[in-house]
Design goal:
single chain, D-Maltodextrin-Binding Protein, domain 2, alpha/beta, 10 strands, 12 helices
């Protein structure tokens, strides 16, 4: 046998194996999927949310032997894309990689809201989270969040904290800290992570509250001083920065991502997708790829994701109502 014929035979065998794999995956899901599946990415191409959606799509394409295609539908803080899925047929061929905004927080920020995340969607699988971090200009006389809160109370004027925009998780986290810890702070919304961070580095504001991925390089470069990460556990990229809870301040704020479908998505399809995504986020490959995007991989059952959506929505409603935040 020549090398050419050997490789042709090998390719044929591999093709047959992949076809059988796809068939095996489809068993128990009523023949689903037997055509391409759309995953709606709710933010612009090239951003972290889009790139995570493409990682998930690639993995599912391989595992189910059918194409999972990412399609971007951008607008209204992620609401436009998730609304499109909420109004789609619950047949497993239109899904969304949503984030905590449209899946929990936006319900209380946008009026009217085009969908109800708890009624119009099926929770499928949690993918991961990006923690928030509060960092300050190095000249600020506080080395941790507890000292920062104390400093704010000792001054005649409030400390100024920038955030990436009105109603963003950075804004909500600052208001949560002000309300829960009695910190004398004033939130300053900017148009994006970069200008909010730039003014904190320059000293125009005292600090910044934003996703850790936006601030990490300048924290490591000592242009910003990180006071706390706002997740349950420390962020692997900044292992020396304590959580807010470690400092006695009960504050958790993260941007989490999850796969969802329309309400009424068949349970067998949900179970198959949940199993594959959990395996991916728990695998060495999945962890490495998600970590490279600044995301902490997570896994959960559909019921646990549903509970997260409800709890996060209730938590941020209290903050949004108390701070009178609106995006109308």
């Amino acid at each position: 046998m020549t090398f050419a014929s050997f490789f042709r035979t090998l390719a044929a065998v591999l093709g047959t194996f992949l076809a059988l794999l796809g068939s095996a995956q489809a068993q128990g899901t009523g023949g689903w999927p037997n055509k391409p599946v759309r995953i709606i990415a709710i933010f612009a191409p090239g951003g972290s949310s889009d790139l995570v959606a493409r990682q998930i799509a690639q993995h599912l394409s391989t595992r189910f032997g059918q194409q999972f295609i990412v399609e971007n539908k951008v607008g209204a803080g992620g609401n436009l894309g998730v609304d499109f899925v909420a109004k789609s047929a619950p047949d497993g061929y239109t899904l969304a990689l949503g984030t905590s905004g449209p899946l929990a927080n936006n319900k209380w920020l946008y009026k009217p809201m085009p969908f109800d995340a708890q009624k119009d969607l099926t929770p499928v699988a949690l993918v991961g989270e990006i923690p928030l971090v509060i960092a300050v200009n190095p000249s600020v006389q506080a080395n941790n969040l507890k000292e920062f809160v104390a400093l704010s109370k000792s001054r005649p004027n409030p400390l100024f904290i920038s955030n990436p925009g009105n109603g963003t998780i950075g804004h909500l986290a600052t208001e949560y800290l002000r309300l829960s810890a009695g910190a004398e702070l004033r939130s300053i919304p900017y148009k994006g992570d970069t200008p909010a961070m730039t003014d904190a580095i320059g000293g125009t504001v005292d600090g910044v509250s934003a996703p850790v991925t936006a601030l990490e390089p300048n924290i490591k470069g000592n242009r910003l001083k990180a006071l706390a990460v706002m997740s349950k556990t420390r962020y692997p990229g900044l292992p020396d920065v304590p959580t807010a809870a470690e400092q006695g301040i009960a504050l958790e704020a993260t941007v989490w991502s999850a796969l969802v479908g329309p309400a009424g998505l068949p349970k067998n399809i949900v179970a198959a997708l949940n199993k594959e995504i959990n395996q991916y986020t728990s695998s060495a490959e999945g962890k490495a790829k998600l970590t490279a995007l600044g995301m902490v991989p997570l896994a959960a059952t559909p019921a646990q994701l549903s509970e997260l959506m409800m709890n996060e929505s209730a938590k941020w409603k209290r903050v949004i109502d108390s701070a009178k935040i609106s995006l109308e």
